[in-house]
What does this fold into?
Amino acid sequence: MCPARRGRGRRGAMRRQEPEQEQRRGRPLPGAVGALCRALPPRARPAPDTLRRAKFDRPQASLDFWRLLYTLLKQIHGHKWAESDAIDNQIRFVKAALWYHGYDRPELYRLPSDGSAGSRELLLAFSWLLHRISLLEQILAQNRVKTGDETSVCTCEDDLRNSLKGTTEKAPEPGLEGGVDVRYLQWLNGRLRFQWRSLHAQHQEQCKLLHKIHLFTSGSHMDQILGHFSVTETDLVRQPENYKQLLQLLESETMQLEAFLEWKQLEPVYWQWMETVLDNMAEEGNMRESQDSHVEGSELPKVTSCCPWADSLTGKIDRLSRDLMTLRDQLHKLVTRRKAAWCEKVKTREEELQKEGFSATARKIQESVELKLLDLAYLCAPPRKRMHGSHRLVFRSKHPASKMVFGGSVSKESVSIVSATEVIRKLQMRETSLARELKQLREESRQRLAEVAEGLDGVICISP
It folds into this structure.
């Protein structure tokens, strides 16, 4: 065979292989986008083609993306999702929620309120939520089908001293404008106490009913580690027709979790694709800037040449600039004089305080140092085991290793068990600490009220 023909045959084979390689490289992208869409809730699930259209900023995908973000953000913030909401209300809510989460791209907030444009900007915002707030993980956790009885347990100690620094160091000034009637505050306080007591009574009743269900169904469960039915399982025994609905929910959740696992494997492909979206936006932005600069450069001489009042306008601008410079110098001199006068007043006040209340100032400084030392000791202390989140309630009858426990996940291999006695003991310790903090704050408030009352002539204050 001729060498030239042999070379042409090799080049033709290489050309045939290049599209095959490109097609093989592009295969993971549809899989990643499809897995991402399948991992979303069914009522908020977009078509994979919607993301492709949004890359090219097609207006047909804008409304779908607004509805998607509206549905997801409504679930995260715990609001009621209503399909009947007008599109402008949905867009307003999405913009407010994105601003709350820290999305500060101004192009998104300039989008029209009718949802007619901006699909690429919405694709960027959606991708930002995926990375910034772990959107998929939050949605899957909120939509999890709960078959067991769960309760929220939190033994994390808030750093109250740091949160109360602003309130303990500054005393409220007397004579504030817009005062509120004390009787109204007392009424609000009584109403709040009543609601707390009602909530506590309802929670106690719920605990009693759960205890009865767990006790009466003890030994009925196939899983010997659990040993008893939950409320959902008891309801299924009484009403077997609900089993099909629960089975459908579990199957839907399983499909979402499988899609989420596939998404986690193909996630880097998605972010590489998003880099191409950003590159396209940057190229279009550069083209617009060059066009704008070309238009400005071509139109500016025409404006100056055909406007006879341009010279007078320039003279007015110069005069205004000189006036502004003069005002700035005057303000600078005024600020300097005021600052010197305030420094003199502060110096005089410091001397008066040193003469009158040196001991009180020293006592306040000592208390502040003690609080800071306590905060430092708290920060330097070794980390303690803290419980936070939702845990499953499992009842244990009275045998050696039996207690009422809270388990994050119950399985025969590894059972995360925390006894209710331990949780109660930690909560009691926390209650004691909070009571001590409350007593200290009340004492400080009494002292401040006494100081304010001393400055009121002819008024007798009787403490409650």
Summary: The CA atoms of residues 11 and 17 lie 10 Å apart.
